[in-house]
Amino acid sequence: MVIIGLTGGIGSGKTTIANLFAQKDIDIVDADVVAREVVEPESVGLGSIIDHFGLSIIKGNGELDRAALREIVFTDESEKQWLNQLLHPLIRDEVFSQISACHSPYCILVAPLLLENQLDKHVNRVLVVDVPEEQQISRTAQRDNCDENIVKNIINAQITRELRLSRADDIIDNSKSDFIQIEQSVDALHKHYLQLAANEK
């Protein structure tokens, strides 16, 4: 299976790009979706989080209060490390289980921390969705209705934009609102990836 690792900083528009590939019948494995699945009510992951942080990070319906947890871990490095050590193996196992079940000519692995967690070792190409940091902050604060300082802390926890771009095989500039241009970029990459997949057979 040819795997394309799709990554980018928070608020860069990874989901938008992934959806365009999905419209071409390409299987998508989204690490963020998997990250939510491994902390669903009654899961082992959520049980461990409750044991560590207490019930204050649980909503009335039994689901994880992600915003409350995010405020804790992005202001306390030791708590962030604890959470990462718990969740990363759970997420990684489920991600590769889903990839093994893909049937399209190639698949897209959407992972915000693709490079930080060294998942790029398992993909054939790294596709970076890029926007300037100011856009990341404004888009995310508006989308998640959260404080800009929290967004800045998340950005600072990720690798720098320059380093991410230096490790990209392919780049989509998502800073402009020219959707036709974005679609054309995805079309060109899709053809390239299909050829790559054909050559791997």
Automatic annotation (TrEMBL):
Quick check: keyword 4Fe-4S in the entry? no
**Which top-level group of life is the source organism from?**
Bacteria
Q: In which pathway does it act?
A: Cofactor biosynthesis; coenzyme A biosynthesis; CoA from (R)-pantothenate: step 5/5
Its GO biological process annotations read: coenzyme A biosynthetic process
InterPro entries associated with the record: Depp_CoAkinase (IPR001977), P-loop_NTPase (IPR027417)
Name any GO cellular component annotation.
Answer: cytoplasm
Primary site of residence: cytoplasm
Catalysed transformations (reactions): 3'-dephospho-CoA + ATP = ADP + CoA + H(+)
Q: Does the keyword Ion transport apply?
A: no
In the Enzyme Commission scheme, what number(s) does this protein have? 2.7.1.24
Which SUPFAM superfamilies does this UniProt record tie to the protein? Answer: P-loop containing nucleoside triphosphate hydrolases (SSF52540)
- PROSITE patterns per the UniProt record, alphabetical: DPCK
- Name a GO molecular-function annotation: dephospho-CoA kinase activity
Q: Which UniProt keywords apply?
A: ATP-binding, Coenzyme A biosynthesis, Cytoplasm, Kinase, Nucleotide-binding, Transferase
Which positions does UniProt annotate for ATP binding?
A: 11-16
State its location(s).
Cytoplasm
Query: Briefly, what is this protein's role?
Result: Catalyzes the phosphorylation of the 3'-hydroxyl group of dephosphocoenzyme A to form coenzyme A.
Q: Which PANTHER family match?
A: BIFUNCTIONAL COENZYME A SYNTHASE-RELATED (PTHR10695:SF46), DEPHOSPHO-COA KINASE-RELATED (PTHR10695)
Family classification: Belongs to the CoaE family.
What's the protein here called? Answer: Dephospho-CoA kinase
- Organism, by scientific name, is Thalassotalea algicola
